[in-house]
Amino acid sequence: MLASGASADGYTGGDTGDALPVDDMRLTFDENFDELDVSAWGPGTRWIAHTPWSGDFGGARFANPGERTPFKTENGILRIEAKRDPEGDWQSGLLASVDPKGNGFAQQYGYFEMRAQLPVGPGVWPAFWLIGKDRSKSTAEIDVMEFYGDKPDGYSSVIHVWHRDDKNDSQFSRIEVFRDADPQDFHTYGVKIDSEFIRMYFDRKLVWKAETRPEHRQPMYVLLNLALVEKTADQAPDPSHMFIDYIRAYDLP
């Protein structure tokens, strides 16, 4: 696992092109979910169960691991479950690879990938995303995959810069791949970041790219979650499940 804040080895800057030569990339982070190393806030675990800045969101509470954990691993697959708890409130799960003190996995540039099955239905909102470690002046965010279960023909990829004055500078693309594929099958969702471009891949095929902004030229850490849309959470199937086969990161060739 690459040390916190490290850059991908061997890459000195420039445009690496649209090709995705994964076989030529060095694996720097490999989470196969044979078991899940998670705590509420760390330290010392691979994942924490909240955003490091305590900014939970959506219509479900992100629950801690424990008796009511939303996480289950079986046969190398992680299941995140969204359901109502005994008090009638929605709970679900989020994982982040950096804790509130900045310890954990983050990498500047490289290829980041998730292989997952997504739930469908109103209210469900699974996502795979990255956040820049330096949030002192702005927050750099890359939403590799953001899926709304009531719009099952595709997903959204979004590149954000959240400024301190609450202004949001965003670029958006609708990736309508599920007209010919099923979100409830396993697919890969990936992003390759170099100093010039941010490129999005579905099943390792390029689906969108945009220029890399200065705010995204920094170590980024990984988040994945099954959230619920606040306005339509009560319409979500109870329970709903997201299945994740792996999360991986690679350096650039």
TrEMBL record:
Top-level taxon of origin: Bacteria
Protein name stated in the entry: Beta-glucanase (GH16 family)
